[in-house]
Write a structure and sequence with these properties.
Length: 259
Amino acid sequence: MTSEQSVEPEPASEDTPKPRHAGFTYALGRSLIAPLARLIYRPRIEGRENVPTTGPVIFASNHLSFIDSIAIPVAAPRPVHFLAKSSYFEGTGFSGRLTKTFFEAIGAIPVRRGAGQAALDALDLQRQLLEEGLAVALYPEGTRSTDGRLYKGRTGVAFLALQTGAPVVPVGLIGTDKVMPVGAKMPTLSERVTVRFGEPLDLSPHGPATSGRARRLATDEIMAAIHALSGQELAGTYNEAPAQGTIEKIKQALPHERR
């Protein structure tokens, strides 16, 4: 039995906070930002009919740019929530309030980033949203691709889908890295974005969420669907920063499950 088959996620902490819904701010932001963005960027939106209009759903997308988390809510036919660094909601002064309002307006839920328990708490927040019948968006690659290739998926998205029974709608984003490349402070207005929604995936035939093999096979199915939509070159590896120390290098070399 491999480590991917034997590793089981531990239950999230009982101290995991409840997700704070944006309420009126999100409703107002969606009614203003989405039409404005569609007017300015004229995004090509394909497969909207594939998105379930009610009930829990997970949008699993490739990740090329900061604006991916704006492109998906703008293109989706229903409200979408995603997790964002809690620091975006904790600023002070006019700038801090403006940043907090913007992220609430696009459906962001604050969460403390990190590995270990922080990562499990983030999954638990998303599970709570799905249990309320809402839609969440996640990036199986874990972080943005800086070279445009599609990296191997981490199993957290599959675990969430298998645990909750929510269908997964694969999303292929094209051109967001040209509208706002990594490192850019402002988006350009000269490029168009394509957002492709694939048919919902029922991952339950792979097995229970407690099975590492089921999580891996489900993740591979998700990534294959994203690849079919985005057409990206496959990297064949995980997208992770180079290890800085000897211990970290050993940990990356050993077989383990990337959540």
